[in-house]
Amino acid sequence: MKEIVAEEFEREVLESDRVVVDFYSTECPPCEALASKYSELSELYGSDIRFLKIYRQQSRSLAEKLGVKSSPTLLFYQDGEEVGSRLSGAIKRSDIVRNLDAMLTPDRVSRIKSQIRSTTSEFDVIILGGGPGGLTAGLYLGQSKINTVLIDPALPGGNVATTHMVSNYPGFIEPQPGYMLSHNMSEQAKANGTVYRSAVDITSVDLERKEVLIDGNETVRAKKIIIATGTTPNLTGASGEKELKGKGISYCATCDAKYFEGKEVVVIGGGNSAVEESEYITRFASRLTIVHQFDKLTANKQAQEKALKNPKINILFDNEPRSFTRDGDKVITEAENVKTGERTRLVSDGIFIFIGMKPNIDQFRDKLELDRWGYIKTDDEMRTNIDGVYAVGDVISKKYRQITTAVADGTIAAMALAKEMN
C-alpha cells in the first residue's frame, strides 16, 4: 500500500493496470473504520491490484475534479478508466471485495480467496450496536477495565447520527447536532478502551455460545453479550416503495432535505417524527404535504401547533398511500381516503416516510422472549431470558424510546454486568 499526492495521480493511477484509490481525511471515523479493512485487503489482492491512498485535504483540486465529495471515498481504475461502483462513508469489506473481484478473472479470484484464513478474537463483552445505549455501555465497561468490543454494521451513533438537532439532551442549553452528539459519545467510549468493529457484515450471531461471525472470516467470542441493535423505519407496504428507496423516497430528513431547496415534497405519517421532521424539511422545501391516516395528527401538541401554523405545510387527513411511481423527475404518491375510498394523486419532487420503527432482531428473533410488538423483554437490570445476554435501548420493550432512556439502559446493563464479572 502506497500513499501518493495529487501530482502523482496520472502516473500512479491512470497509467497503471489495476488500481484502487482511497481518498481519506484525518479526524474521520469512517476513514478509521476503513483503514484496517483496506490494509488487510491490500495484503490479499496487492500482487494483482495496486492499493493507493491520497490525503484528501491536501488534494482538494483533484478531489473536486474527480467529484469526490466525502471521506473516505474509494475509486477503482482499470487501464486508466474508472470501473465498478464508487464507495464512500461506512464502507463494508464485502463491497470492496465485490469491486476487486470484478477486476480479476474468476480463476484468480478463487486462488486469492483460498488464501483467506479465519481468525478468532476474544473479549469479555460483545456489544451489538453502536447507538446511545451501546455506546454508554461501552463507556461504563471500559471504565471498569472490562475488555469490550462494539460491533456495528454501520458507524457508531445509531439513529441519533442522522438526527438534525437534539434539543432535549441534558447538559446542553442549545440544541446539539445529532451527528456531533453521537460522535462525542463514540469518541468517549473509545477513549475509555472500547474496541470497535464498525461497518462490518454481521454474518451470524450465536447468543448461547456468545459468538459473532463478522465479514465471514472473523469469529468474535465473549463471556457476555449486550444487544443494542436499535430499530429501522417501518415500510408503508405500498407498491413502488422498495423500488424508489433512495431514488425519490427517503427515510432521513437530515440526510436528504437539503436536496429539496425550493421544491415540493410529500411526507407520510402524522406522529412526532413525521411532524417534527416536516418542520425541518420546510427550511428547504417550498411546499410540503403531510399524508396521515387519521383525522388528526398524533404528534405532541407543541409540534402540532408549529405545523398547523406553518404556511408551507398542507395536511391530507384520513389518507393512506397506495402506490409510489416515478414520472420523469417527479415522484407520484397515490393516496386513498380510508373513509370514502377517493384517490388523490400527489405530484412532488420527493417523498419522506416516517411511520414508526421496528426492532433489528432478525438474526436472533426466535431465541429471545419478546413482547407482542416484537421488542425484547428484559428485567430491571437489562437481562434477557438467555443467561449472559443483556439488551438495551430502542430494541427493548418499554414505554418511552428516547436518547436519554437508551443511555440509562446502557448504564444499568454495564453496571450490572461489571458487578457480576468483577
Task: Report what the structure shows.
With 422 residues, the protein is α/β, with parallel strands linked by helices. It contains twelve helices and 26 strands. It folds into three domains: 2-113, Glutaredoxin, CATH 3.40.30.10; 120-232 and 357-421, FAD/NAD(P)-binding domain (3-Layer(bba) Sandwich), CATH 3.50.50.60; 241-353, FAD/NAD(P)-binding domain (3-Layer(bba) Sandwich), CATH 3.50.50. α6 packs parallel to α7 (178-191), α6 runs parallel beside α12 and α10 runs parallel beside α11 (301-309). The protein is globular and about 65 Å long. The model has no long low-confidence stretch (mean pLDDT 94).
In short:
The chain has twelve helices and 26 strands. It has 422 residues and is an alpha/beta fold. A five-stranded mixed beta sheet has the order 1-3-2-4-5.
Summarize the SSE layout with pairings:
Layout: E1 2-4, H1 9-14, E2 18-24, H2 29-45, E3 50-55, H3 60-66, E4 73-78, E5 81-88, H4 93-102, H5 106-113, E6 119-122, E7 125-128, H6 132-143, E8 148-152, E9 165-166, E10 176-177, H7 178-191, E11 195-198, E12 202-206, E13 211-214, E14 218-221, E15 224-227, E16 231-233, H8 241-244, E17 249-250, H9 253-256, E18 264-268, H10 272-281, E19 287-291, H11 301-309, E20 313-316, E21 319-327, E22 330-337, E23 343-348, E24 350-353, E25 357-359, E26 389-391, H12 403-421
Parallel strand pairs: 1-3, 2-3, 6-14, 7-8, 7-15, 8-11, 15-26, 17-24, 18-19, 18-24, 19-20
Antiparallel strand pairs: 2-4, 4-5, 9-10, 12-13, 13-14, 16-25, 21-22, 22-23
